[in-house]
Write a structure and sequence with these properties.
The chain has a domain of about 100 residues: Flagellar motor switch protein FliG, alpha-alpha superhelical domain (Annexin V, domain 1), CATH 1.10.220. It has 6 helices and no strands.
């Protein structure tokens, strides 16, 4: 073979191989990525809007929850204040009840003592009983006289100083 034919043969072979290689590379190569502008802008907008909307909704929900929490905290504080007031009033009421019970007990003791004293004074001379009763506290004197028999009480009242008899009579009238 001569040199010209050999050159032609290698040149032709090279060209065929080049064409085949170009074809194989073209087939094997992945399609080029589409440019960013080829994606419709409308398809991105809903994704952006939905995430923005979700973020806004979460923010609003948190604000509402905080407002509700503050409102509930104020209500709780108000209830605590009311509870403290009620507890204070309850303690005051318990103290007053105890005071009233003590007064009632003292009143019962005074009534018992007044009955005993009335019997003693009824057996005394009206002048002597009047002298002792005039020195007693007004409430005690009234209690003792009210526990006496009417006739004996009248005799002792007649023997009392007129001013003291008026005081006892007015006090007895105010009790009824």
């Amino acid at each position: 073979m001569d040199k010209g034919r050999l050159f032609l043969f290698f040149g032709f072979t090279f060209a065929v191989i080049l064409v085949i290689m170009t074809f194989v590379v073209a087939v094997m190569k992945a399609p080029p990525p589409q440019p960013y502008t080829s994606i419709p802008s409308d398809s991105l907008q809903p994704r952006i809007d939905s995430s923005a909307i979700k973020a806004r909704q979460d923010s609003l929900r948190r604000v509402k929850e905080q407002a509700l929490l503050q409102q509930q905290q104020k209500a709780l504080d108000s209830l605590r204040q009311q509870l403290q007031l009620l507890q204070q009033k309850n303690r005051e009421l318990a103290r007053l009840k105890e005071k009233r019970r003590e007064k009632e007990q003292a009143r019962q003791n005074l009534t018992q003592t007044a009955k005993q004293m009335a019997k003693i004074y009824e057996n005394m001379d009206p002048q002597q009983a009047a002298a002792i009763l005039s020195r007693l506290d007004l409430e005690i004197a009234v209690e003792v006289i009210s526990k006496m028999k009417k006739r004996k009480a009248a005799q002792i009242m007649a023997a009392l100083d007129p001013q003291k008899a008026v005081e006892i009579s007015q006090f007895m009238a105010s009790l009824r």
